[in-house]
Amino acid sequence: MAMEELTVFHALVSIKQVPDTTNIRIDPETNNLIRQGIPTILNPYDAHAVAAAVEWKRKLNGKVTIITMGPAAAVTSLRECIEMGADRAILISDRAFAGADTWATSYVLTEVIKAVHEQDPIDLIFFGKQAIDGDTAQVGPGVAVRLDLPVVSYAVKIHDVNLEEKFVIIERKTENRNEVIKAKLPAALTCEKEIAEIPYASLPNLVYSLRYEPEVWTTEGPITFEPSLLGLKGSPTTVFKTGTPEKHVAGEVFKTAEVGVAGAVKIAFDRILEVEGVASMLGVQK
Amino acid sequence: MIRRFWVYIEQEDGKAHQVSWELLGVARKLTEEIKDELEQSGDTALVEGVLVGHQMEEVAKEALQYGADTVYYVDDPAVKHYLNKPYTSVLTQLVKKYEPEVFLIGATTLGRDLAGAVATGVGTGLTADTTHLAMGEVKNSTSKLLLATRPAFGGNVIATILCRNHRPQMATVRPRVFSMPARLPEAPGRIVREEIAITPDMINAEIIELIANKASAVKVEYADVIVAGGRGLGGAKGFELLQELADELGGVVGASRACVDAHWIAYDHQVGQTGKTVRPKLYIAAGISGAIQHKVGMQESDFILAINRDPHAPIFDIATMGIVGDLYEVIPAMIKEIRARKEAQHV
Ligand SMILES: Cc1cc2nc3c(=O)[nH]c(=O)nc-3n(C[C@H](O)[C@H](O)[C@H](O)COP(=O)(O)OP(=O)(O)OC[C@H]3O[C@@H](n4cnc5c(N)ncnc54)[C@H](O)[C@@H]3O)c2cc1C
Ligand SMILES: Nc1ncnc2c1ncn2[C@@H]1O[C@H](COP(=O)(O)O)[C@@H](O)[C@H]1O
Q: B195 pLDDT exceeds 90?
C-alpha cells in the first residue's frame, strides 16, 4: 500500500487569537480598549479543539490543518497549534477583513474551507465553543450553515469517527443532559474544554514549530472573495457605542476581629433578609 | 403595515424554557417604545412566538398567556427533539414568510446554536448574549432600531450593537436578565399552525442516545441562592460545608475556576467567564479573591456576601456586604444562625 493511501483522515481546526482578558485595561477618558501591550493568547476553547483533532489524527493516521483569520501576529497562535501536532497552518490576513462581525467572518472562513477541501477533502471541522473576546458562539454554526454541514455544538466527547461509512458520533452537552449525536461526514463541531486535554509538546514538534511559517492567504489570492462581503462593509451589525460597565459600589465590610464571628453573621442575615423575596424564600421572618 | 416582534419559544421534552416568557415580556416592552411611531403611521406592532416541536399545544397556549398575540406553531414528530438543521430550515422559512422586524432567542445552549445558524441562513446580523434591549433613535434611520447591549472582552466593556440594513434584527438574550411577565388566564391571542414539510434532506444528524447528566442537575445559572467557594477552601472537603449551608438556604454550590482546575468540584459548578453566568438573589463568595473572570459571571447578583481573610481582596469591591474573617469560622456560624432563625419561627 502506498503511503498516501494510509493518510485518510483530514481534520480542519478554525482558531482565533484573542486578547488575554485577564489583562484588559480601559482608557478612562475615551472608554476605549487599550489594545497596545495586551498580550494575546490562543482562544482557550480552540486549544482544546486542536488537541482533539490531533488525538484523532493519531488514531486514524490523518492530518490536521489549522486556519485563522486575523492579523499577522496570529502566527504565534498558529505555531502553538503546530507545536501541538498540527500539520499545516493558513493565516488569512488582509486589511480588507478588518472589522468583520461574525457574519463576515464566517463568510471568509467558509470560502477558505471550501478551497482547502478541494485540495484535500476534509472530514471534520473543529471550532471552539466560543471566542473569549466576543463570547458569541456564532461562527461555528454560521460556517456550518454556509457549507450545509451538520453541526454539533458544545461537544464534550468524540465517540467514533467512521470514515468507511462516513459518520461521526459526538456527545454534546445541553442544559439538561448530554446527547449522543450521529452525524454524516463531513461534519462540524464546536468544542467544550472536556473534548480533549492539551498535550505536552514533543521536543521535535517544539523545535519544528519555532521555525514554522504558515501560508498567508489574502484578497490577492490564492482564492478570490466577494469584496462587498468583507470586513466592516460586509458586516450586518455595527457597534453603536461602547462604554465601561457600571461601577459597583463596594458595600460595608465587617471584620470578625472587630464585631466577632457571630456578630458579623447576624448583621449579614439581617441584611440578606431585606432583599426582596428572600425572607419568604427562606421561610424566615425579617 | 404590521411590525412583528418575534420570540423563539424554546422547549425541551415538551417543557418551555422560562427565558421564552421573559422574552415575550421584553418584546412587549419594545413595542411600547415605538408607540409614537405607530400612532403617527397607523401601523400595528405584534408580539409573536414561534414554536417548533411535537404535541406542544400546551406550550403554545402558555405562550399566549404570557402575552403573545400570535404563536406560529410547527408540529411534526421529526422535530420533536432539537437538531440544528431542521430547526434552522423551519425558522428560516418562517422568517422569510413573515419578515419580522425583531427576532429574540434565549442565549441558552440550544438558543445560541440555533440563532447563529438562522442569522446566517437568513443573511442578517445577530447580537449575542445581550443584557439590555431598547428601541431607539439612530441617525440616518427613518424608524427606531433595536439597540442591543452586551458585555464584551470578558465583561470589561459594554457594547451597544445595531443592525441597520438587514432584517430581522436578531439578538440572543441571557436568561434571568429580564423579569417574567404576568401570566394571564384569559389570552386573546391565536395559534397559527404552519405546515412546513420536514424533508429527508433536512435530516443530516440524529440523536442516538440521551444521557441524563447528574452534574447538570445543579443548574447554578437558574438558582436563587448560590454558596460559592474558592481556593480559600483549601480542598475538596470544604465544599461539603458549603453544601450544608446551601441546603439550609435552598440553594446550590458554585465554585471559582481554581477549584475546578484542582478537581475539587465538577466544571458545571464553575461561575465566571468560562463557566456559568449567574444572577441569584443571594451569592455568597467564600474564599474567592474576585478575579475579573469570576466577577463577570456573578456581579449582577442581587446581594453579594463576600467572606475573605484578606481585607484587600478585590471581591469586596463589588460585594454588597463583606466579612473579613476565616470562612471556616463564618460559614459554620451562618449554618447555626439560619437554623436558629428557622427554629425561632416555629415556636
Ligand atoms: C481566560 C480565563 C478565563 C477564566 N475564567 C474563569 C471563570 O470562569 N471563573 C473563575 O472563577 N475564574 C476564571 N479564571 C481564573 C481567574 O483569573 C482566577 O485565577 C480564579 O478565579 C481564582 O480563583 P479563587 O478566587 O478561588 O482563588 P485565589 O485567587 O487564590 O483566591 C483565594 C482567596 O481565598 C482567600 N482565603 C484563603 N483562605 C481563606 C480562609 N480560610 N477564609 C477566608 N478566605 C480565605 C484568600 O485571601 C484569597 O483571596 C479565568 C482565567 C483566565 C485567564
Ligand atoms: N477570526 C477567526 N478565525 C478563525 N476562526 C474563528 C475566528 N473567529 C472565530 N473563530 C472560530 O469560531 C469559534 C467561535 O467564535 P465566536 O463565534 O466569535 O465566539 C472560535 O472558537 C473559533 O473556533
A: yes
| Whether A34 contacts chain B with CB within 8 A | no
Of A8, A64, A13, give the one whose Cα is nearest residue A42: A13
DSSP letter at B98?
H
Chain B residue at shortest CA distance from A264: B323
pLDDT score at A99:
87
Of the pLDDT bands very low, low, confident and very high (cuts 50, 70, 90), residue B261 is very high
Write phi, then psi, for B74 (nearest 5 degrees).
-105, 115
| DSSP helix, strand, coil percent of chain A (3-state; round to 5) | 35, 25, 35
Which residue type sits at B263?
Answer: H
**Nearest residue of B to residue A250, measured between CA atoms:** B317
Residue pLDDT, tens place only, A34-75: 767 788 999 999 999 999 999 999 999 999 999 999 999 999
CA distance A138 to chain B (A): 5
Angle at B13 between CA B84 and CA A152, to 5 degrees: 25
User: Residue B123 above 50 pLDDT?
Assistant: yes
Q: What is the pTM of this model?
A: 0.86
Contact B267 A194 (CB under 8 A): yes
Q: Which residues pair with B1 in a beta bridge?
A: none
Closest by Cβ to B342, choosing from A242, A255, A283: A283
Q: Residue B120 and residue A106: Cβ atoms within 8 Å?
A: yes
- Beta-bridged to residue B53, according to DSSP, are B75
Q: Chain B residue with minimal CA distance to A178?
A: B211
Angstrom distance (rounded) from CA A163 to CA A123: 8
Contacts of A254 in chain B (CB under 8 A): 321-324
Better-predicted residue by pLDDT, B291 or A249: B291
Q: Is the pLDDT of residue A1 over 50?
A: no
pLDDT, position B138:
94
B268-282 tens-digit pLDDT: 899 998 888 898 999
**Chain A interface mutation, best of B203, B204, B252, highest count of A Cβ atoms under 10 Å:** B204
Q: How far is A211 from chain B (nearest CA, A)?
A: 31
Residue with cell 454524516: A184
Q: Which amino acid is at B36?
A: D
Tell me which residue of B131, B116, B123 sits closest to B165, measured CA to CA.
Answer: B123
Average pLDDT, chain B: 93
Mean pLDDT (whole number) for B231-235: 97
Q: Chain A contacts of B112, Cβ < 8 Å?
A: 137-138, 153
Residues written for chain B = 347
A181 and B206: CB-CB below 8 Å?
A: yes
